[in-house]
Amino acid sequence: MKTSLLGSIAGMLCAASMALAAMDPIVIKGSKFFNEKTGDQFFFKGVAYQPRTGLSSSDPDPLADTAGCKRDVEAFKDLGLNSIRVYEVDYNNNHDECMKALEDAGIYVVLDMPSPKYSINRSQPYWDHDLMSHWAAKVDAFTKYGNQVVAWIAGNEVANDVDTTPSAAFVKAAVRDMKAYLRSKGLETPVGYADNDDMEIRMNLINYFNCGDEETRADFYGINIYRWCGDETDFQTSGYADVTKNMTDYSIPSLLTEFGCNINRPRTFPEVKSLYGSDMGGTFSGGIMYEFTEEDNKYGIVKVSYGDSKYEKTGDYDGFKKAMAAAKPQGVKMSSYKPQSKDSTCPKASSSWKVSPDALPPTPSAERCQCMLDSLGCTFKNIDLSASEGKAVGEAVGNICGLTSCAEVAYDTSKGEYGNYVACDSNQRAAWIVNKNYVNQKYAKCEIDGADTVAVKAPKVKDDSVCLTKKDDIGSVGTPSSNVGSGSGDDKDAEDDGSADDSGDSSDDSASQDNDNSTSGAASVAATAFVKLLAAAAVAHFLF
Q1: d(CA 205, CA 218)
Q2: Which of 88, 258, 294, 495 is catalytic?
Q3: Model pTM score
C-alpha cells in the first residue's frame, strides 16, 4: 500500500509539473519570435505587472499573491493579453497557483533577473558571485514552469547616460553568464536587455548588445519608451518612426519592454495601432504596456490592493482594451521566414561610450575568490565588515591604491582591462588590497586603523596563481585574465556616491521599475560605505 501510495503521489506531482510546463514553446528565429508548435509569429501583447499598493513587506511578489493573481488574470483575459512582465519576485515563495492560473489563461511571463537588492549598480558596476547566485536562484525557482517563462531580462535601464556607460560591460557579462547558466540547466530561454531610450547613448547600446560572439550577445533587445503622448501625437512626431528605423535591420528580436505616456489621461493608447500595424509590426515583436496597477506614479489601468480579490478600473482601462482589441498584427510563418540581417558592429570606446569592445568582465567564481582569501598573509578577522569598518577600509584602500597598483581587483572598461579578482565582492577585494599593503611593507605591520585585521603566519594557499584555475560559478575551469592593466589607468567614470538614492532611474518621471540601479545586495551597510569611498578615491588616485 505504501509503495502504491507513493507512486500515486509521485505521478500526480509529475503530472502537475508537466501541466505547468505545457504551454507552447516560443522560440527565436532571426529577428522574430515564433510559436514553435504552430509556426505562427508571436507578438507580445502584455502589461507590466508589479502591484505595490497594500504591500506589507519589502519584498513584493505578485506571483505569490494567489488572491491578487487570480483576480488579475480575469482582467488579463478581458484585455486579450498573452503576456506579462514581472520585475520582482521572491524565489523562496511558492508560485504554483498563480502560474497555473496564468497558464490556463494562456499568459506567458517575462521575468527580470535583477531586483533592487541584487542588481548591477550603474554608478559603481560590478558583477560578482553574490549577484549571480541570487539571479541563479530565481532561475532555479522558475525552471519547473518550463515554456511559460518566455524570456528573462538581465538589465533594465542600467546605463542611462554617458557617465554610466561602463555598466553596460557588466550587464553584458551577466547576459553571457546567465545564458550559460540556463544552458547548463537544459534551457534555451532567451535573455535580453531593456534600455531607457536615451538619445545620446541609444545606438551604442543597441549595437553593443548585438555584437560579438553569440554566447555574449543578448537574445533580444527591449526599449522602454514614453514618447507618444496622446492623440495629438503621431508615428512621426512622437519619434516612434526614428526608433523603428533604428531597429529595421537588427538581427535579433526587438520589442517595447515598456510603453504608455501618461501626460494626457485617460489614455487612449494610439501607439498600439502603429506597434501592431504596418508602421512597426514588421520590425517589433509587440510590447509591454506600463503598467497594470495604479501606483504613486499614476500609470495604472486598475486599482488593487495586495491580497484583496477586488479591483477597480481606472479611466485608462477601456482605452487600452479598445486599442488591444483592434491590434491584429500580420506576422509571417516560421517556415517561410528567411532572416537577412547581420549582427551589429561593436561600438569603439570614445568620450561618449566608455566601453572597449575587446573584453568583458570575468565570470564570477566563489572558488577563485575564496582561494584568493586563503592566500592572504594579512586579512580581516571577519570578512563581513561592520559599517564603521567599511568606512575606515574605504579610506585606507583609496590611499593604498594611490601608491601602488591594484590592477588585480580593478577595471578600466574603456580599455577592456579587468583584474583577475574583479568579480570578487567588495570586501574580498578590499582584503586583497590590505594584503598588498602588507606585502609592500615587507610584512612589518598588518594594521588598518578602524578595522580588525589579522596576520596569517601560514596561509592555506601558498601561491595564489593556483586560484586562477578554479572553476567559475557555471562550472568551467578558470583561466587568468589576459587583459589585466597596470592599475594606473585614468578612469574618470567613477562617481562619488553609489547610494541607491543617487543612482535611481532618470527616465520619464521614474515610470520604469528601477531594478538595476541600487547598490547590490552583496553590499551590506559596511560594503556600501566601502564602495562609496573607494569610488571617491578612484577619482583622486585613478584607481578604477
Answers
A1: 11
A2: 258
A3: 0.87
